[in-house]
Known about the structure:
By secondary structure, the protein is α/β, with parallel strands linked by helices. 36% of the residues lie in helices and 14% in strands. Residues 51-53, 78, 80-81, 122, 148, 150-151, 172, 174, 185 line the site of pyridoxal-5'-phosphate (PLP).
Amino acid sequence: MIPPPPPPPAAHIFQPVLDRMPAPAHAPEAVALESALAAAHDVGHAIAVSSGTAALHTALVACGVTAGDEVLLPAATVMMVVAAVQAAHARPVFVESGALGSMDVTDLSAKIGPRTAAIIAVHLAGHCTGLSDVSDVAARHRIPLIEDACQAQGSRHRGRLAGTFGDVGCFSLKDGKIVAAGEGGYLLTDSAPIAERAAAYRTHWALPAAGIPAFTRLGRNYRLPELSAVLARHNLAGLEAALARRRAQAALLADLVGDVPGLCRIVPADGDEPNGYSAVWEITLPEPRAFAARLHQAGVPNSVGTFGLRAASAHPACQEMNPAACPAAEHAVDRLLAVLLLSVDTEQDLRERAEIIQREATTWNPLGGHPARPHPTASSFSTPTSSGTPSS
Ligand SMILES: Cc1ncc(COP(=O)(O)O)c(C=O)c1O
């Protein structure tokens, strides 16, 4: 049984905002959301912004990243993270990783150089594998750690909430996230100077920040609209119910698919408690990207087949950056099946998707002839080995 979704908002909760419009109201709803976010994560400060990408860009600026700096991030990432690094005029340096963003700490350490100004850890599908090892490396080298927890609201690593390990945690409120508001985002930090700089940058540097007077730098309008703040606060109150539902949906889909040749379920690494953002497998069938695309066509939305997820080091949009290859991450992402889940997905929806996955996997035969046999290797490829090297 999947627990029910949290109750939808009643229209009247938006009325106070509508009543105040169009007079400028100094964002009381965003301020109330920030207090609720800080309390829910037990951190000192939350800053509401207009998107997850804006949160990442703002975090980079607030951590002091400037033109010509290098930012280390996993090769297995979404393009929005690369876009944020580029918006900060920094150079992305991709690190070998598992398919869900777990960085190889040996490669990470090797790529730290005099221009390294920040590390971004990305928790794809809500998995935070190896996060404490990455955090240790960042601390040892005194490099700010930014977590992209956009897909990891409510996930835990070693008992601690995703987004609270780094100097800053960044989140998206886009539809489909565990706490959503249509669009939007937020940052979490325990550092007062980072919080001040982030708040100032978010609103055209109209606020003084950590010894920097107001209006002496250029910033952005990355403010979260007040109506979205109301919706986000309502949905944040339902976080535990939303988490319970998403985790149950992910577990049910995995159970319904069961043991299918050519699909190897990715189980959380020790100490990881994902939020159930997606149900995840490694595809060991031939032509895995084509298989993911086929599943999308057949009605199973997934990150490679639906959104063309590809390791950033091999992504066409990154080629002008001349990135170094990260073959392990590229191989792992090509074999990733991360099935997208939404709170509205019913048990019946999941049964239908499971049947499609089973049918397509057992009949997959991209090369003609007899149905192809899966490769014999099965691995938990999101899990780094003791040296931090992701197995693949
Ligand atoms: C891992 C990750 N990072 C960043 C983003 C960017 O968030 P937004 O779309 O709110 O800008 C997303 C959103 O989908 C995401 O999943």
